[in-house]
Amino acid sequence: MTHLILSPHADDAVLSCGGLMYTLKQQGEAVEVLTLTVADVPYPPPASPVVLDLHPRWGLGDNPYIVRRAEDKAAVEHLG
């Protein structure tokens, strides 16, 4: 059986269901994660107050979601 974990944002699946995902994999079950709301930022990024505040604080460049997707993928792969 394949279990589909819906993740509203990057890392939500791992933080909310990581234990379940790990247990299912240990039991030989298949687990798929679908992250719903991670998209690339248009270039140049919009000059919204949120972007102007958060992107420099995060220190991940103009398109932090590239890094966030890679982190999310690595975390899911770490669980098996």
Give me the secondary-structure topology:
Elements: E1 2-7, H1 12-26, E2 30-35, H2 49-58, H3 64-78
Parallel strand pairs: 1-2
Determine the N-to-C terminus distance. Answer: 16 Å
Mean pLDDT: 88
Tally of DSSP β-strands: 2
* Helical content (DSSP H or I, runs of 4+): 40-55%
Q: What would the principal axes of the Cα set say about the shape? A: elongated
Strand order of the largest sheet: 1-2
How many helical elements? Answer: 3
For the largest beta-sheet, the strand count, sense and barrel status come to:
2 strands, parallel
- Give the SSE string: EHEHH
Alpha-beta classification? alpha+beta
Describe the structure.
With 80 residues, the chain is α+β, with helices and mostly antiparallel strands. Helix content is 50%, strand content 15%. The chain has 3 helices and 2 strands, in the order βαβαα. The chain has a two-stranded parallel sheet. The radius of gyration is 15 Å and the shape is elongated. 10% of the residues are buried.
Quick structural overview:
The protein has three helices and two strands; from the N terminus they run βαβαα. The protein has helices spanning 12-26, 49-58, 64-78, and strands at residues 2-7, 30-35.
Based on the model shown, name its key terms.
80 residues, alpha+beta, two-stranded parallel ribbon, 3 helices, 2 strands
